[in-house]
């Protein structure tokens, strides 16, 4: 539908500028000023069309204004008539106009004649609309039909239009008379024609009823307009002799219905929880997303206050501020911790907006809730991760991937490692500035771009203070939002490398010591043993033989001391390559290498474990010798399984509880023939494997050594 003119003015005259300027001054989109220069043509048009006011020039080419005014009064005595008086009007003429109560405007005397003319037209038209003339019945009916908002039609019994009221020009946007003679179906939307014919048949069959129906009619511009039709059969009324149809334009109402329907569909399908309350806060509507997110059904929520979602996490002042905001007509936005029907809390991003009437009064509130529980949880975890990264004892970085590279993100430890004053200082530096050898940075960058990851790369770098440091780099190439970065960690290993060099130096010294022991001690010892054997074979003195036996024992003890010292010096905390072995077989093999005499071994284990076989053999041999030395030649040794390891126990005299903390110390022994190194070697072998050892009382009262932590073997 186009615009509907509701202020139609008939101007009898030839001033086109006046028509344009007065139309503008009327300031109404639907105002129309119709110009007719010839009086006869203007009066003919007045008889066919409806107008709210007639404006006439005081000088006409083919008539005089008095005759025109008389004809207008005969047509409709109440229709306003406004005379435009040009320059040259005498006082006598003006006095006559005043006496005759003719409305006029002195064009040349007014500073704004067009504005004054428009004001006079508006006042006259308004007076005409609200005043029913008491004379001229025909004119009164015409005026009423022209000014009514409805359109009245009369149809004959075939459905042909016989009459359309003057107000029809606003509905159909054409002269009402052009519709007469048309069948109503010809101006009805094709989808509505059958329904209209059925309704018309009902009206004809039941003259006592007023039938109401809504359908679409065609306007002059080809558009379709929704109307509500109320039809009543007046064929038997001689004054009418037809079906009277009253048409009300409901296009705006239908448009509003469509908008509301679309709005409801959008709200119903929205993923956000939406609810509407009255001005007092009582819920009038909730959408399905509200039901799903809160657990409350539509029936349970409507009529309740939104405080059914109150979690108790916010203060009364918090909600008071919310209400003050929306009651003032402003929109409130914020995060709220709500509680579902099942008692579980969730976080929403809430927007509450007031809806006002045309008078500015708050009619209702609309609340939209976006569930951000997962987002808040993610943000919380992200904060935790950032806190962890910030407090890691290693440097963490993100850089651009170039050979020079720029720092994008760093943690505090990296700032400390590079002797920078702050993160901002470090972020202004190129990565290559810290490399002692620029080629190493280029190689690192190229390798990371090609392979994607680098682990434990050791390079030499320089701090901002000029200090040379050794660092270990582990990094990976990542892509984020289409950008490539290098993410990684950097560990200052300067102290570790210094300790490694010191350890290497000490190992060299130990190796030298071992060589001295091997050469300078063993050679004289071997010579002494050889000489002793010669004397034993040639000597027959029994007493001398006894003394030589004692010497032989001491030489053997010296040999054992040398072996133990060499074991400590050459192996220390080192574990060579490991292999998985059967513990029972290993124990049996070690038992065969020890002088056991009458001692017995009981093996009760099916454990397999990863060990350095040579070192493990030393462990068991030393434990077995210790059991025999302290438990006697007929001691029984048992090896069994623990929950996370194994034990070795004997049925000898055991170890005094007060001495158990010292048994693994260098040189500790309670036996005259002991070296004091055996259990210390056992402890070092256990530690080298990453296990633990403790001593307690055995099941038979002897010593029990428990080796645990096998699940955490040294790798």
TrEMBL record:
Q: What is this protein called?
A: histidine kinase
Q: Where is the PAS domain?
A: 144-207, 259-305
Give the top-level enzyme category.
transferase
Query: Which keywords does this Swiss-Prot/TrEMBL entry list?
Result: Coiled coil, Kinase, Phosphoprotein, Transferase, Two-component regulatory system
Q: Which residues form the PAC domain?
A: 211-262, 330-384, 455-505
The scientific name of the source species is Halorientalis brevis
Q: What EC number(s) would the UniProt record show?
A: 2.7.13.3
What biological-process GO terms show up in the record? Answer: phosphorelay signal transduction system
Q: What is the lineage of its organism?
A: Archaea, Methanobacteriati, Methanobacteriota, Stenosarchaea group, Halobacteria
Q: Which GO terms describe its molecular function?
A: protein histidine kinase activity
Tell me the ranges covered by the Histidine kinase domain, including all copies. 516-708
């Amino acid at each position: 539908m186009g615009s509907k003119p509701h202020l139609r003015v008939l101007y009898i005259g030839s001033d086109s500028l006046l028509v344009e300027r007065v139309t503008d001054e009327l300031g109404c989109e639907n105002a129309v000023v119709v110009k007719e220069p010839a009086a006869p043509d203007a009066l003919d048009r007045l008889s066919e069309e409806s107008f709210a006011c007639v404006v006439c020039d005081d000088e006409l080419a083919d008539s005089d204004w008095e005759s025109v005014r008389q004809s207008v009064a005969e047509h409709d005595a109440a229709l306003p008539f406004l005379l435009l008086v040009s320059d040259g009007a005498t006082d006598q003429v003006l006095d006559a106009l005043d006496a005759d109560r003719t409305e006029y405007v002195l064009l040349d005397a007014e500073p704004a004649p067009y504005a004054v003319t428009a004001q006079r037209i508006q006042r006259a038209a308004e007076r005409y609309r609200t005043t029913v003339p008491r004379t001229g019945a025909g004119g009164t009916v015409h005026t009423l039909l022209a000014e009514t908002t409805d359109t009245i039609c009369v149809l004959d019994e075939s459905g042909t239009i016989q009459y359309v009221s003057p107000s029809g020009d606003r509905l159909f946007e054409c002269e009402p008379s052009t519709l007469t003679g048309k069948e109503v179906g010809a101006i009805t939307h094709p989808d509505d024609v059958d329904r209209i014919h059925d309704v018309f048949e009902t009206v004809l069959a039941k003259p006592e009823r007023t039938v109401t129906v809504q359908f679409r009619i065609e306007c002059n511009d080809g558009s379709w307009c929704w109307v509500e039709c109320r039809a009543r059969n007046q064929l038997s009324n001689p004054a009418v002799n037809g079906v009277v149809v009253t048409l009300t334009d409901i296009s705006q109402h239908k448009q509003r219905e469509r908008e509301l329907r679309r709005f409801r569909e959008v709200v119903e399908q929205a993923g956000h929880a939406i609810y509407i309350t009255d001005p007092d806060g009582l819920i009038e509507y909730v959408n399905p997303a509200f039901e799903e997110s809160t657990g409350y059904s539509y029936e349970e929520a409507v009529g309740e206050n939104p405080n059914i979602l109150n979690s108790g996490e916010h203060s009364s002042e918090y909600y008071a501020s919310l209400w003050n905001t929306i009651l003032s007509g402003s929109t409130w936005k914020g995060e709220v911790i709500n509680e579902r029907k099942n008692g579980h809390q969730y976080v929403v991003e809430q927007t509450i907006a007031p809806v006002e009437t045309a008078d500015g009064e708050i009619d209702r509130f609309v609340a939209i809730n976006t569930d951000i529980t997962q987002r808040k949880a993610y943000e919380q975890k992200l904060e935790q991760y950032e806190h962890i990264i910030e407090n890691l004892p290693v440097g963490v970085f993100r850089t651009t991937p170039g050979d020079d590279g720029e720092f994008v993100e760093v943690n505090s430890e990296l700032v400390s490692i590079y002797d920078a004053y702050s993160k901002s200082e470090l972020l202004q530096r190129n990565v290559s500035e810290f490399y002692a050898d620029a080629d190493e940075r280029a190689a690192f960058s190229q390798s990371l771009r090609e392979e994607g990851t680098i682990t434990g790369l050791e390079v030499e770098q320089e701090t901002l203070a000029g200090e040379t440091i050794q660092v270990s780099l582990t990094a990976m190439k990542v892509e984020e939002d289409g950008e490539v970065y290098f993410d990684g960690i950097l560990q200052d290993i300067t102290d570790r490398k210094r300790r490694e060099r010191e350890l290497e130096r000490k190992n060299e010294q130990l190796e030298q010591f071992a060589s001295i022991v091997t050469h300078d001690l063993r050679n004289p010892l071997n010579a002494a043993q050889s000489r002793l054997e010669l004397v034993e074979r040639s000597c027959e003195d029994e007493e001398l033989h006894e003394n030589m036996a004692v010497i032989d024992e001491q030489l053997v003890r010296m040999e054992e001391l040398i072996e133990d010292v060499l074991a400590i010096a050459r192996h220390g905390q080192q574990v060579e390559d490991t292999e998985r072995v059967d513990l029972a077989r290993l124990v049996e093999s070690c038992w065969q290498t020890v002088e056991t005499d009458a001692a017995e071994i009981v093996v009760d284990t099916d454990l397999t474990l990863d060990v350095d076989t040579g070192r493990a053999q030393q462990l068991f041999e030393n434990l077995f010798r210790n059991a025999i030395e302290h438990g006697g030649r007929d001691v029984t040794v048992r090896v069994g399984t623990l929950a996370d390891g194994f034990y070795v126990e004997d049925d000898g005299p055991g170890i005094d509880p007060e001495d158990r903390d010292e048994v693994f110390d260098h040189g500790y022994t309670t036996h005259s023939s002991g070296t004091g190194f055996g259990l210390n070697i056992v402890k070092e072998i256990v530690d080298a494997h990453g296990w633990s050892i403790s001593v307690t009382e055995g099941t038979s009262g002897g010593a029990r050594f428990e080796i645990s932590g096998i699940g955490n073997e040294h790798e």
